[in-house]
Structures
1.
Amino acid sequence: MANKKADVVIVGMGWVGGIIAAELTKAGLEVVGLERGSARGVGNWADDHDELRYAIRYELFQNVANETWTLRHNLQENALPIRQLGSFLPGTGLGGAGVHWNGQTWRFHPRDFTIRTSTIERYGASAIPDGMSIQDWGITYDELEPYYDKFEYMAGIAGKAGNLQGKTVPGGNPFEGPRSREYPVPPPPDTEMEALFREAATSLGYHPFYAPTANLPRPYKNPDGIERGPCTYCGFCERFGCEVGAKADPTVTVIPVALKTGRLKIIEHANAYAIRNDGKTAQSVLYFDAAGVTQEQPADVVVLGAYVFNNVRLLLVSKLGRPYDPVANTGVVGKNYCYQTGGGGATAWLSEKQFNRYMGSGANQVAIDDFNADNFDHTGLGFIGGGSISLGQSGARPIQGLSVPPGVPAFGRDWKVAIRKYFKSVVSIGFQGESPAYRYHFLDLDPNYRDRYGQPLIRITFDWEPNERAMVAFAGQKTLQIMQAMFPKAAKAGAAPYSPTGPDLIQGGPGSLPAHYDTVPYQSTHNTGGAIMGADPGTSVVNSYLQMWDAPNVFVVGACNFPQNAGFNPTGTVGALAYRAAEGILKYHKSGGMLV
Amino acid sequence: MAEESRPEAQSAGPFLERPLSRRALLSRAAGLAGAAAGSALLGEGGAEGAAEPPPPPLRFFTPWEFAYVTAMAETIWPTDDLGPGARVAGVAYYIDGQLAGSWGQGHRMYLDGPFFQPADSGHGWQIPMTPAEVYRAFLPGFDVYCKTTYGNPFTVLSPAQQAQALTDLSTGAAPIQIGGSTAFTSASFFSLFRQNVIEGMLSDPAYGGNRDMVGWKWVGFPGDPMRRGDPYEKYIFTTKPYPYESKPLPLQPAAAKQGVTSGAARPSFHVPANASTNTTSGGA
């Protein structure tokens, strides 16, 4: 027998589910949230400064023994299961990945939302390589701005505006789109290594600024009346929950607000596996309960707020929407899977200077945006796109934080001496690049492998392409240049045999990507696409309210909506889209029909 | 390697050796205990070695495996005149616990078939074995390799030979097979093992390694900052050195937590009364 019908059922209780639940219940709707994990909150993290348990053994992440993904690099290859977590770390449990994130909270550039049009306008159609399937979002930055603002004031994002209503203001990011008002919280001061980066970047004519952070530097009360205290800079941020609630997460912000209305019911250990539908309308969400027994939650509106892969899997398993076929180039569900392009960083190992590296917060960083998006002239460079360059101090924990220069042996006495020498003396500048969409990068259902419930796994088809290789090669030269300006006396690492009494060393230069996308080393939990938004039902799954073109009472929301990924962390944009969707759901609930 | 074709059965690890006599068992036990007690003396604060508790019972390793892993870990992170290493820190006990526990037993691994050897790079672990099964299957092969290449088991090789044998693993030069399969290479085992040693030196002492926090003291990591109720905020934006790098504190033992954290140190949604001074709610 089905559960009592709700106004809205939401799959997944992370940022998307939490925001939408808060907005809808405040407006009087009855909402059921299906969460596959357990309830949890700030009280769970009182004793979580345990690197092994949380960061190395993955306490807070999806257990791939139950459910994983398969990967192939191209259509010809055998897709193989990702048998251990590595490259990306999706969360599970109340709050989702919003609990274990770092808190880096960006807005995408105005150009990112019109990437295809803007690229063709400036460089001509030939600038877009064959097979690259980038497209405009069907929404502009200016249209999304009020929702970004809402997310930032709810979460208490600390930062400094660089563009207030079209006027450039000093201290912020001069390349950002216009903001309607200043950040709700001012940024913290620079740490010593951040100050060196800022000085070096300024000396080179770049425009450094404090990167926006969800780790509160001072107490903050948000428009919902939620009060949170400041960060302690403990250094246990990404992969951990925040024991003082200083890091904005759904369990200390939107979920309590929704629960307080009395109109949100959260069902824990509810694994949604299908949407009952007739091809035009959804009736309910089917889920396995804690006993593995099928249950049904009917609702007027179905919202998919799970992680990228599960939103797409639910649509494909439910035969809702048109599955993407890259060979025939038809359909849309699964299309334009993208990721985040790393590489292109620079590292310095200092012989004398030490920093308090083990202190930090996840989003503690100074950045430049001079080489992101289309903020620089790409004429003759052989690639499009760019990325954010930053130096952060997120807290070095010892198992993951060891670093030695090239030439030091992998073990033994010399290695032992070097890890001690450099634990507090290594400095890194990172590059976080765009990931453009391609015709043959996509998601579908794997024909061979299944999860613990017998449902097919998502199959990822993805690899690095020449455009990104050229971008990373370019970026590596820029990060090296900044590092050299920070430590002008340093020698090139690896140029001479390593000596423990030698000078400061820098490794950098043209960046590179591995021969193939590698699922083993951690890179980024910024998977995107598969249920992309757009203005055209022929090339997108959802409209600008994240409402499905093929089923108006279904809203699919999250990074799955990005037609391609920008050179920024996704959460700020995911939060903005969730507020946009909530507004759309309220409109739909009132008057029905297609909203666009 | 010339030894590649040597028949495996000739020296296929300790399980083909004759059963140990009772006397040999006793002396082996004494040797293990002696090694542990002796190593404690090398540790910082080792002068209190008299009160050193007896080593914990093994949960996964056989004594032979334990001795092998102890010697291999010591080659990765040696105990020397500069400071304690893997033996003193109890790294082999750490790995023993990990292999007996959920990680070693593959509780967070997808091990459903079918299995294929990848056509290209980037696919990671693609065999049906758990880490514990890999250790158990790999060590006898490594023993054969050490005997055939260097004339002795790893445990009695000279330090230079031990270093060379591990280098042979790290480069993949040691042609070690598991049941005739080369799918799990010696280089893969080396990275797995090296990572486990680093974990055993630098994880919380609660996991059996990093005894007396010798690993943390070595690199200068102060442990759990919240144990001092002393948030880093007063230091992170300055060049002031943090005074407790050499005196790290581990996670609070469960027993000690009773009554201490209930209420007082539990964070809440509310800003503490002293919020205007920008101090933490966690230490309030």
Note: Chain B touches chain A through 80 residues (CB under 8 Å).
2.
Amino acid sequence: MQLYRAHMLVCAGTGCTSSNSTKIMEEMENLLSSNKLDNEVKIVKTGCFGLCAEGPIVVVYPEGAMYTRVSIDDAKEIVEEHLLKGRIVKRLLAGEKEAEDISKSLDGVEFFKRQTRIALRNCGRINPENIDEYIAFDGYKALEKVLTEMTPEAVIDTMKKSGLRGRGGGGFPTGIKWDFAAKQVSDQKYVCCNADEGDPGAFMDRSVLEGDPHSVIEAMSIAGFAIGATEGFIYVRAEYPIAVKRLQLAIEQAKEYGLLGDNILGTGFKFDLEIRLGAGAFVCGEETALMTSIEGYRGEPRPRPPFPAVKGLWQKPTILNNVETYANVPVIILQGADWFSGIGTEKSKGTKVFALGGKINNTGLVEVPMGTTLREVVYDIGGGIPNGKRFKAAQTGGPSGGCIPTSHLDTPIDYDSLIAIGSMMGSGGLIVMDEDNCMVDIARFFLEFTVDESCGKCPPCRIGTKRMLEILERITTGKGETGDIDKLELLAKNIKASALCGLGQTAPNPVLSTLRYFRDEYEAHVLDKKCPAGVCKSMLQYTIDASKCKSCGLCTKVCPMSCIIGEKKVPYVIDQAKCAKCGACMEKCPFKAISKV
Amino acid sequence: MKSIAELDEIRKKTQEQISLRSNTDGIRVIVGMATCGIAAGARPVMKAFMEEISKRNLQNVTVSMTGCVGVCRLEPVVEIMEKDGSRVTYVKMTAEKAARVVAEHIVNGKVCIDMTIGAAEEKK
């Protein structure tokens, strides 16, 4: 057995791959062999660390030194200094500004210190393409325990007691869902995994599949045992090529080891998995539409009941859980329901993974216990808002969710508290907005998304959301009329009450929640024809302050419309009729004489 | 098809290979690998440590490197750091001495006094 003195983990998640981590890995390999270190240092490809804003990320063990924003040129320094001479390259360490300490390691970084990683336990720790590494970190031990020591009833009981709720957004208790399906009598049952992650800015599921695919496979087998199913499907978007590839590989490896297939671990239990690729329709993340799509039909939802646990895939009892939900299952089985329910709040147990995006310093993936406040997530872990701007709101739950304003920054995040303040947990996308974001424009953006993604089956969603979007477009272009806001509210409430599936029922949420907290912004747009944040172009004007203008002429050079007129010693003027409102002149002006109103 | 016993075997074997990623509480062998250390022959010393540890299948022992501690005349310098953070510093190391340190100090917990920095200083 080859023993290595150091392991170099290179992130191969989508984020770091897009910033060249594959090339960095090749370069490292070349450098190791040219320095004759290839027998001492092992390079390991791993999943997402979560600190995507600082990628590409390379971690060197045993020191646990985390290098960020590594370039191909840095590879040489890391190999020659750290691996050859044992000197940590301080300049590339995470959080080097705050720390003088050379032992700055993964656990020392503020970003990781405050997290509790359960679903992401193996992401950034193991090589996802090597089943042995998953097994080494207690992988497939939960399946072993379930098959040899537990009855299906005991498994369901553990899941119920753990208090685990669906991480896809709805928050339905997982154990109860499994129990429904287990109680059905049928010749065939199915276990499905929803990996059709579609919310803009959300990538929790992708990271789990890329970084730890075996945890989902193991959990689905456990679910199969619990409800009495022998077949399962993972429905994953085709837009996640790395996730699909690793998942395929993981399934092959599991089959090779006999962890999928007939007579698993010699216990007589049979379970098999297949992957189904989604073509990118948002509605296919809705459970009934997803199953219709697996069956080979056009992905359209159908009314419930009957619920999938009674009549799902091909009319057979089916359970459908989200990727993150499954990733929690093996740990719950091994550590016990009491351990899991000890984390989180009274009604929301465990942790939740959030994808931080928007106006935040540490864009990336974090996992925190339920009940952590938004303030902790945004400021302590997320590193706050860039450029000293003020926090305005955070959007959770994507197009189905709502905004959380400053006044609710200290609300503990769990399923119920978010619903109480008019938002929802959703799948875990968390988009931060600062003072430069227009809330009406944000609502318009999300509605545009749902109009685009509506499957068209039911009129409230097909026609209603379209009408709402038209009103919002009117408001954001300065053509809003008195009464528009009331019309919006009425339409929103009616769509919520009458749409067929979750997509339509939640589509008005971004409008309702922005109306609830930022009604004054809507009113400013409609009544004063002003956009307070200065985003809606048709309502703003760039003007030159004559007293500050030194007639240098720089603005005329950058203006793409050539609509700034002036001459030496006379202040310049913008021709408002021609101005495209690009803002280039304002950026260029050395005297800050140009402002937008 | 793998049996549960075989799975356990894989688990154990792989754990040994990847233990250095999770374990910070074991014994650490720290080899001085600055220019002075390398010139005095630190690389074969480090290799000897790795071979011995691998041969004896020792877990909870990691080998890492460090820079110059300032006693260049006594290089190669190797420090053994215990779980509690206490250190023993060995000087003028060779591959043969490395094997002895593994056998006596790391495995049996008996410090090889004659090779420590204290012994070397006394001789002067």
Note: The domain at 541-596 of chain A is CATH 3.30.70.20 (Alpha-Beta Plaits).
3.
Amino acid sequence: MAALAAPLTDLPEPTYAEVNRDIVATLAPPTRNWLLGMGLVVLGVAFGGFCWAYQLKDGLGVTGYTPPIFWGSYITTFVFWVGIAHSGTLISAILLLFRAAWRTAVYRAAEAMTVFAVMTAGLFPILHLGRAWFFYWVLPYPNFRGVWSNFRSPLVWDVFAISTYLTVSATFLFMGLVPDVAAVRDMAAGWRKKVYGIVSLGWKNSDREWQHFGRMYLFLAALATPLVLSVHSVVSWDFAMSIVPGWHATIFAPYFVAGAIFSGCGMVITILVPLRKALHLERYIQVKHFESLAKLCLVTSTIVAYAYGTEFFMAWYGGNSIERATFYNRAFGPYWWATWTMLTCNAFIPLLLWFKRIRTNLKALFIISIFINIGMWFERFVIIVTSLSHEYEPWQWAYYLPRWPELGIVLGSFCWFSMWFLLFIRFFPVVAIAEVKEALPPPMRGGHR
Amino acid sequence: MNARGVVGVFGYLDDAVRALTELKRRGYTQLTVYSPVPRHELDAVLAKKESPVRLFTLIGGLAGVSFGFFYAIATSLDWPLVVGGKPIVSLPPFVVIGFETTILLGALVTVAGMLLNARLPKLGRSPGYDKRFSNDKIGIVAFGGPSQLEGAREVLRDAGAEEVKDV
């Protein structure tokens, strides 16, 4: 891993001890802003819970579902959160394999984001059920009914893909934290020292531990890399395996994976800009790291824009009148506003990232990242709702808009995600102590420090 | 109490590498190195065998792929129900299940392999460990009999250890 060594910062490089001091300082007692933020998100979660309770009591009729549109804001938000998760694994695993040194400063936050985003996504298929208490029927387990899950169904693939993704990404996050938690333990006192001691598994930085840890980390990255590509492919097949016009396309898997990484990088920027300021991490999370994230956004944005173009082109060139009508309807029908929001936010606004002045301006990046988040939510809405609203038979055409209980639950999901993230930064180092130090030149009597 | 070992605390990597090289040259085999980050310079001197964690990954992956296909095939045969006119045992869709379980078991067994080989979780004390070793210092612990420890103290001091003490 020493090959990762590369200049970390433009500012004077910190010493090993300064890295420990600065990053452990982020775990200081909560500030008023943290408590205020936590209070707000807990309120949001409570409101989401209230909306769900109302839906459970009165049934799915409280949503805006209109036959045949029974996949609406919940499935849209499910795909949105699964997508958000993807950049965390990209940054922590794929960029590790590519030896991209800049990842060290930002990967921990992105990885935590991954775990909490999958935790949030996992709620939505259950929220979407009419009888949520029977969600376990989709799991393959021996039961008195004598039937098993249908393994030919993409929905069962999804169960395997998402649960594997949650397990592996949580394991990856936790194992990566072990050496850093040990560093926190060694700087703590009292009950905190005991708790961090247990969480660190008694890690002592010995040569034996580092040797096996290094191998494990590399193999976990190697396993997580195809996993991340598979998960959003499987999610895309929830749609592409059906014959709904607008869904049945072979481009869906790569299109969804690129979109997922695009949205995830957008969310990493949205989170890191305020986080860096609030935790005084300017020395570690630098403008050049944001610029690298912005470049990733730009690349994936162009892939996504190309996929949009391909979809429209194939609808026209393929000669299938139903497909052609669906895409005409998508751009100029009753949902034109959603489609053009998607195109503006995902294909046009990110073009600003071609300019270095914008890529290195954090305010501009933050605003663009918000547009990316909005655009990517709308992308899923457009794919799901416009396709279902305009299927084969004209008498089936319908119009759906989410109602307040749905919007409350979607809002609650953002608060649920934020709640876990706020708790994480309160108790765990949000910048990887050991890996940041690894990227610094080591202290040498004969040279550089 | 007689000392079992001696620890040298180093502030510089090159000093630590020099001490470790000399200890190895003099035939010390029971050595433990504590360092805030893994350094290839130290690994090169220790010249350890390849970690067996990769075997765990392989075994986990193979177990995962076997389990995934077995589960999907066995449960389909247990309740044969034709869906969409497809065969009861439809291998292409089962690839997805087999793939996911490969990754799942591969990852979990890799972690188990690391924990087993690194002897974690560690409940007891580690002789010679100092909390500075997770911060900015490197520690080298040499174990052995009284005469060996005397020699080790000398090597550690000569190499520039900031502190040498018995453990």
Note: The mean pLDDT of chain B is 93.
4.
Amino acid sequence: MKKFVNDPNMVVDEMVEGFVMANKNVRSLQDARVVARRDAPVKGKVGIVTGGGSGHKPAFIGYVGRGMCDAVAVGEIFTSPPANAFYHAFKAADGGKGVACLFGNYAGDVMNVDMASEMAEDDGITVKQVIANDDVPSAPKSKEADRRGVAGEILMWKVGAARAEKGGSLDEVIASAQKAIDNTRSMGVGLSPCIIPAVGKPNFTLGENEMEVGIGHHGEPGIKKMDIRPADEVAQMMMDIILPDLPMKSGDELCLLISGLGSTPLMELYILYRKVGKILEDKNISLYRSYVGDYFTSLEMAGVTVTLMKLDAELKELVDMPADAVHFKQM
Amino acid sequence: MTGEINAKEMVGDIVQVIEENKAWLSEIDGAVGDGDHGINMAKGFSMVGDGLDEQPDDIGSLLNYVGMTLLTYIGGAMGPIYGTFFMKMGKAVKGKKSIEASDVSGMLTAALEGVVKRGGAEVGDKTLVDTLHAAEQAFNKSVESGDALDKSLDDMMAAAKAGMESTKDMVAKKGRSSRLGERSKGTIDAGSASCYLILKSLGESIKRYL
């Protein structure tokens, strides 16, 4: 293991410390490992909270800021934050109109958010939730509720937070965020594993020329392992799985998010983008907005996730709203 | 009925057994998960150990303290599940310093019901419920047939071990490894293993005071 770490058990604490020092618009809480907007809670606005394990930078703390999340509960690497962290994030985010907790479908996160919501209710804070389940290969079509949440979470936060900024009620924020994720589908392909510092060795193995098709954001095995193919074939294979799942049809407009998993160069992401764009063009589906970069990673894993969100007038308006998070700025 | 139990020593033994088995728990977790079960459990239990001296002496308060600490600090799915496990056990023996068979039975049943309710797992899902359910059934059966408490505890520990081993050939239905389907077969579940270690440690502790 060759990493810039001190004590492998302290990586998350030391990262949060550095992150808060570097970014004046955010602060960390004393009572639990939470990063919040410096000006949170924003009076009269529904609070937007997410949280999850660390190791997905810039998710989750990079999305703290105006037009995105008010507070984020921070867990150990690839491990849900404890209920106590979500509870303090809710308290930090509640500006009197309740809190929308928008997070990914993982057993630990679901249980900790539920327990934290019960704790917050005792304090008079209303918390409602939307659980992202955009990862198509993680469960079959009839079992959508079992699917994991991956990079589509970013679009869910973007839409929910924009609704909150526009003065939406808690129910309206929840409805918009739910609509966003219901119209979002993702899929990943992994090329190399990653190393959790405290574990010290790769979390799975792949042959020299192998790729894991349908990989999860923690290295969870996907549909199959197969030999690496040219970028265009990989893009085609992913689109053949994602597109029919929504489904998308001629004339639709969409938002496309292509995220690297940590160590894949931006160059390769654009090579994949090129083919995805052509596939959509051939189907007369137009790209309304695109995001390409390391938006949701898995430590130093090599690979990609492709995320599509089918848009309507409401989603277009909300996705276009400005945002000023540390790692997500949009005019 | 046991003599007065040194509950801090009882909890201290669990802290130690988790620390000693940290690498093993992570290794079996790595076969189907992300390989950090041992690390997370050891982190949570070392925090339990750190604050132990300041706690009250009775068994109920100490078990509740263990649950609250795990819930507050370890995160993942194990925080809420083991948090519930220990808090429910603690509630079943509130204020007690010595216990009898009905207390142990109450602890096991409350822990099982709490964990099932919180995590939604059933027997056969390849989780710690397979260990806990087997242990609870065996203990109650032994008590009902009129065995002495030490025999019932032995039966409980043996059944917990068998429950853990039964997960080896199961297909995971809950949590992260459930996404693996058939590929989750062949290794025992890490949660069922830590649950066995905890129940064995508790059983041995109680036996020392008979």
Note: Chain B has a mean pLDDT of 93.
